Each structure stands twice: as structure tokens, then as C-alpha cells.
Amino acid sequence: MLETLIFILTAFWVWMLIDSYQNDPTQLAWFWLVLFLCLPGALIYFFNRKPTSQSRKSLHPLRRLQLQQELHRARIAAKYIGKAHQFLILGNILLDLGELDRAKCAYATALSKEPKNPYALWGSASVAFYQDRFAVASRHLELLLKIDPRHLQGDASLMYAKVLFKLEKWSIIELHLQEDIYYWGHPESIIMLARIEMQNGNVGTAKKMLDNMISKLRASPTYHYRRYRQVVREAESIIRHLSTTFQSK
User: What DSSP line would sit under 106-167, residue for residue?
Assistant: First the structure.
């Protein structure tokens, strides 16, 4: 009994050690914590990793294990049922696991069966965005927004804005950003619009936009402010840069 428990705890420690290395390959902060603290470090790591659907690197170990189990079932369903829905589910799981190339193929198959499936378009656009294939993402998002302008409560609109900004399509992005801010109020869109105003020489307008955004976020509920804390820091950094530039002149 004791030998079994020791084996399980050792296996858990090794699992957390490998997982922490995969999640933090550059700084290795979690890896060293797990390595030197052994089981306590493994437990600290396990309970402090935050699950997320954006990247395999950020997945909680338990969530990743769950997804691996779901992946097996999804592959069987895609093989033997083979409709757009099954490939869409498969693509979603692969995307959550960070297997972008395989997710891309799954979404492409779903689109070949249902070319206007909004969720398959969103999945394909998401993969293309994460792979920096912004022109491809743009095409998927344009069609998606024609089909469902409110897709995922404005997430598609925000991603389209980010894609247009990356592609430097200045002739159409300003109008889209203004519409996105009006309907959805995304702070990220305000940042992008402020940067465009700066490029156009409207520094005062840009600073006012950022100041207003920061004030509104700080006055919002705590959970909402925490969600956009990084955006606030970016806005503050831009304002400091503007202030330094003016002082140097």
C-alpha cells in the first residue's frame, strides 16, 4: 500500500515537473519550484495554474488531461459520423490544446461541408490569427461578420479590428474601430484607435481617449478592471511616452 502511494506521488511530481517545463520553457520559474520543493512544489503548481482556452502552454494540467480524453472521442465521431459538427468539435479541442495545424485541418473540413458555418469560420479565423496569417483570418472574419455581426458578443468584431491593424488597412479600420467601440466598448479598440490618431498627428485626441478609457476602467467593478489591467498598463505606457516626447521637445 505504501509503495503504491509513493509511486503515485512520484508519478504526480514527475508529471508536474514535465508540465511546468512545457508551460514555462524560457524562464523556468515553475520548473525550479517543482524541482526543489518536490511534492509541495508540485501541489503549489497544480493549484495555481489557471485554465484557459487560448493556448496549450497555459492549460491547467487537469484540464489538459480532460481535453486529451475528449480528443479521442472527437476523433472517433469525426471519422465515423463525419459531419461538419463533428469536425468543428474536433477543431475546438485541438485549438484548446494548442495543436494549431491539426485544428486548421479540422476547421477546413467543417467548412468544406458547411461553408457558412459561423463557428467553423470563427475557428479557422482564430487559428489563422494565432499563426500570424492575418490575410486568411481577415477573409474568414469578413464573411463571419456578414453572417453574424454579433458573433460571440463582439469577439469576432474585436479580432477583425486586430487583423486590420496588423494588415495596416488604415482606409477601413478607423470606421470599424469606431463601430466596435460604439457597440461593444472594447478597450483594445480604443488603444488601436488612439495609435492611429497618433500616426495622424492628433496626439491630444489620442491622449484624451486613453485618459477617458483608463478613468472608466478604474471606476468599473473590480473583476472588470482586473480583466483589462494589462490594457490599462499599455495605455499608461503610451501616455508616458507621449509626455516624455513632448518634454524633450
Answer: HHHHHHHH-TT-HHHHHHHHHHHHHTT-HHHHHHHHHHHHHH-TTGGGGHHHHHHHHHHHHT
Distance CA 59, CA 117 (A): 27
d(CA 118, CA 153): 13
Let me know: does 239 contact 205? Beta carbons within 8 Å. no
Is 24 in contact with 14 (CB distance < 8 Å)?
no
Residue 200 in grid coordinates: 495622424
The Cα–Cα gap between 130 and 150 comes to 21
What is the Cα 195 distance to its own chain's centre? 21
pTM for the model stands at: 0.77
CA–CA gap between residue 89 and residue 6 (Å, rounded)? 38
Q: Going by C-beta distance under 8 Å and a sequence separation of 6 or more, which residues neighbour residue 198? A: 206, 238, 242
Tens-place pLDDT, residues 100-156: 999 999 999 999 999 999 999 999 999 999 999 999 999 999 999 999 999 999 999
Q: Which helix (H) or strand (E) holds 213?
A: helix 203-219
Say which residue, 16 or 211, is predicted with more confidence: 211
Measure the CA dihedral 148/153/159/165, to 10°: 100
In this structure, how many other beta carbons lie within 10 angstroms of the beta carbon of residue 26? 5
Cell numbers given for 31 = 520548473
Q: What is the pLDDT of residue 245?
A: 67
List pLDDT tens digits, range 23-69.
655 456 777 778 888 888 777 777 776 443 344 445 667 778 888 88
Mean per-residue pLDDT for 8-22?
79
